Amino acid sequence: MSEKRKSGASVPRATTSKYQPSAPSSTMTYVLGGIAILVIAGLVIGGIWWSGRDKGTADQSALASSSTMIVGPENAPLIDVFEDPLCPVCKLFEQQSGPAITAAVNEGKLRVRYHTLNFLDSKSATGDYSSRAAGALTCVAQEQNTDLFLRFHSALFAAQPAEDGTGSITSPELARLATEQGATPATAKCITDNEKVAQAQQNAATSSDELKKAAGQVGTPSVLHDGKPVEGLLDGSGWLDGILAGKS
Question: For residue 239, which of 221, 213, 215 has the smallest C-alpha distance?
Fold first, then answer.
């Protein structure tokens, strides 16, 4: 921007210089052009890298260590399932896809890492039902019995209390439910005494963080396959058919 002239100031006369600028050589043009391309490419690559960092990806080792139970063979397609025991939509998901997941696991076609979240604790009558149910699942998981875990997992959602805070299931009742599915007396005591609630709460926090990295938000039910969110979870078990067929 040019400066305003001051009143009364003399205007200098133009002078003719003997120096005349010459056009840059073609070599210099190529050099400058090449530098510009490198700078632009660097900005583009850097932008993509930072964009990827902003989106984030779940840490597979963290997902493994924070899971409540891992079932199925190691060489099978892997999914991560995130649920809250008090979530009504999770109950619907279990009703629609639970039998298909169990069948695929039993047939050696699927590997599942179950993650039990607890963000609905405050919606329960006792204020801690999700955490206690997660602790109960963790106690059952200690037996390393896939059939037992899947039976108890299904029974837990079938017996789900109301989310409006009017119903709850005590820890001894959770222990009795586990015993009905074949859990040992030691596991029943583990549930009754809430021995694994603190561990379950810690796992829930880590699992929530990893889900948020991968999906951008935390919600249940959620499923990750190859670290990416799976769509259509409430449209029946078609989403699982696609994974088993290698289409997603």
Answer: 221
Tell me the residue type at 170.
Answer: T
Q: Are 133 and 153 in contact (CB under 8 A)?
A: no
Q: Report the relative pairing of strands 69-71 and 111-116 from DSSP bridges.
A: antiparallel
Q: Give the pLDDT of the chain (248 residues) as one tens digit per residue.
A: 433 333 344 433 343 333 343 344 444 444 445 444 443 333 333 322 223 333 458 899 999 999 999 999 999 999 999 999 999 999 999 999 999 999 999 999 999 999 999 999 999 999 999 999 999 999 999 999 999 999 999 999 999 999 888 878 999 999 999 999 999 999 999 999 999 999 999 999 999 999 999 999 999 999 999 899 999 999 999 999 999 998 76
All domains in the chain, ordered by first residue: 60-246 (3.40.30.10)
Locate 39 and state its tokens: 């700078």
